[in-house]
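Suppose you are handed a protein chain with no further information: no name, no annotation, nothing but its sequence. What can you learn? This example shows the usual starting point.
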Amino acid sequence: MDKFHSNNKVLLPLRGVAVLFTIIELGLTAYGVSYFDGSYTDGFYVYTTNFGSLNFMLFASLWSLLVLAYLLATLRFGRFSHPIASFVLLIVTAIFWFAGFIALAVAVGPSCYGNHACQTVAAASAFGAFLWVIFLVDAIFAGMAAFGGSRSTGQNFSQPMQTA
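A reasonable first move is to predict its three-dimensional structure. Written in structure tokens, the prediction is:
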């Protein structure tokens, strides 16, 4: 097993936080999709809209849960892991979160004027930003494992660990 997958002290908490935030994101975006399902009212006006970016964030949440299931399984069963596959999955997931939270923040705008559904969608955008950072950090670790480690320390994360 390579050093990347044996270092559970960093990856397990990072992926645990990613699972927690993804479940929170799933709840926030599912509520937003159900509220903005085509027509809604704020008490004065009836709006007909559906945020495509909100639907995309719902997809990103489900995608992330699948990716995290694979990544957590590879921590337990290292023989099923492939460092380049993990790296590619994490980069794609980070790109999804980056595109999603930016698009959702643009769609929501700067202020919600006390509208609880709008504030929920704004919170979903914020959690999307946190998830982007988490998946980006995880992708950096996966890239070090897949492509050879760190230049500053001289460590090669793709080589098997040596036992004394």
